[in-house]
Amino acid sequence: MPRYRYPEPPPSAITPKSAWLNRRRLMAGLGAGLAVPSLAWARSLPPAAPWPGSTDEPLTSFEVATGYNNFFEFGTGKDDPARLAHSLRPDPWSVEVTGEVERPTVFDLDDLLASFALEERIYRLRCVEAWSKVIPWIGFPLADLLDAVGLTSRARYVAFETLYDPEQMPNQTSTILDWPYREGLRIDEAMHPLTILAVGMYGEVMPNQNGAPIRLVVPWKYGFKSIKSVVRIELVEDRPITSWQARQPREYGFFANVNPTVRHPRWHQATERRLHDGGRIRTEMFNGYAEEVAHLYAGMDLAENF
Ligand code: MTE
Q1: In order of start, what are the domains of the chain with their CATH numbers?
Q2: Is the pLDDT of residue 282 over 60?
Q3: Ligand 1 centre distance from Cα of residue 215 (Å)
Q4: Phi, psi of 17 (to 5 degrees)
Q5: How far is the CA of 71 from the centre of ligand 1 (A)?
Q6: What's the confidence (pLDDT) of residue 27?
Q7: Which of 159, 162, 161, 211 has the alpha carbon at shortest distance from 185?
Q8: What single DSSP character describes residue 297?
């Protein structure tokens, strides 16, 4: 059984566009004036009905999903993003799509949400690092955006960049990574329907600490591939260098497919801690999405191309 169904969610899962856009404005307005993002307020809105499209594992609680994060622009502690990401201003926001495309475009985020009629498509996906979360993302396939700009025949990889603004992202003054955070995908990975750009979760606009206002989610890869707060998407001919590869090429490969048989040099990757109950479970090849994605890597040595 595939873990996702790609067709449209039922109408009951769709929040009217105007409500969505207003909610985003209100969130941004409230967040700007408060020390803590206005999540409690937002959660009092009626949630969209879940779209039972994907994994049936229990969801991680909203509190854990938004309280235990990696977002190094705000610090290295798992609670730093929740405490500090209020300085990020996700509205207004634009995403530049450029490079080997027919129509280079700077998308205003609100226009992008409106023009793709994307809001509230729910993807219930698992994400794994040393721990795993199951989150009902709201988003749309990256392929939709790439189709809209049209790829040239030279587009072989996609390079992503996070915002660079140390005033909004204070830990960008540190040297732990070469900022801005950069990631990349091969074009067939980028076009896969499970590769989504997420703009919300749990029926809400994306909380700052989870990568507001728009982030990548690539569920069959380790969490670090899922770059947050994206401002730039460039189609390129040559494989881009990612932030983690630049920092430690022996530890972080370009592909970073979840693979319990490949050891990270400093820890094994055979098991993961499920954040919803703290239980330790065996990590599955491609994070359980082998049926959907294994064909992308047919004939490749995945120990070498880790
Ligand atoms: N994107 C940016 N810009 N900066 C980061 O530090 N951390 C990555 C990824 N995307 C990161 C990022 C890592 S290591 C993980 S595990 C996931 O985001 C965490 O996403 P979550 O906090 O929503 O669980």
Answers
A1: 11-297 (3.90.420.10)
A2: yes
A3: 9
A4: -55, -40
A5: 5
A6: 55
A7: 159
A8: G
